[in-house]
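quick one before i forget lol
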Amino acid sequence: MPEDVLSQSEIDALLSAISTGEMTAEDFKKEDEEKKVKVYDFKRALRFSKDQIRSLTRIYDNFARLLTTYFSAQLRTYINIIVASADQIPYEEYIRSVPKMTILNVIDVQPLDGRMIMEIHPNIAYAMIDRILGGKGTSYNKIENLTEIEMRLMTNLFERTLEFLQDAWSGIAEIDPVLSELEINPQFLQGVSPNETVVVISMNASVGETSGMINICIPHVLLEPIIPKLSAQYWMETSRKHRKPDEVELLQQKIKEAKVQLTAQLGSSKLTIEDFLSLDYGDVIELDTRIDEPLVLKIGEIPKFTGQPGKLNKKLAVQILDTIEEGDEKNEW
């Protein structure tokens, strides 16, 4: 997080001082101009580098695209999800920022040690419920707990997103995410210690005309074993890795089994539109290829071989005489 950004506790203290008259906006501005020493809060230690944050953003950019496709198909309406920001803050600050009656998916991420939280803003969550139940996808204020039917619908909807989360992470680690619980009150979450650093990936989501946020909270303890893999150097090395020998052999075998169209071209001719329109049954078209010249064999539209026509077992056949190399003058047939 940038050093100039205030924490939630600092914002609350500032608003309280202004509302009680202890400090005016001008006093705060003057104090800010005079301050030359910045206080470092060890409780808000930045444990992730910018490079690692960018790698996580890249992962969830892919996840957001997969979610957009999935929710559009499931809800049958316009869905748009994009990553807005990625930041690191204390877990306590994150929990205090979560509004009540929010859909909180707690996800166990095996084999990593820890759980991540997918927070769905009430506007988005209730618009999804309305759409699933046949409505237009409009949000509404809900003051009581979700019914068992609504909880089951939301669980089914978000359980299917875990395979997309697995795909998004496949370039960094092989994970097996499981939706362990679904909560609507952030105070009931048994997460990590309050001072634990977490990465919060914020995504803007739109369901029809309703918009809100989807936040992913990832504790440092979960990412600690794979932090070296979040560097740009690891991404570059991974992209340069060669295929395994068995993968290459399998690919070669599949290519050998692929079917392609082979065409023997007897020759060609140019006609005027007038001659073409006057063609009739029994007319003879003169080709520009001599009878003793080899035929051109094409794979698709690309000349690859020369050959001569004949018969084999009472069937028309072509015997290959030579190969047309790429760039050969013979290629201009």
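fyi Strands lie at 79-90, 103-110, 115-120, 176-183, 197-207, 210-219, 262-265, 295-299, 302-312, 315-323.
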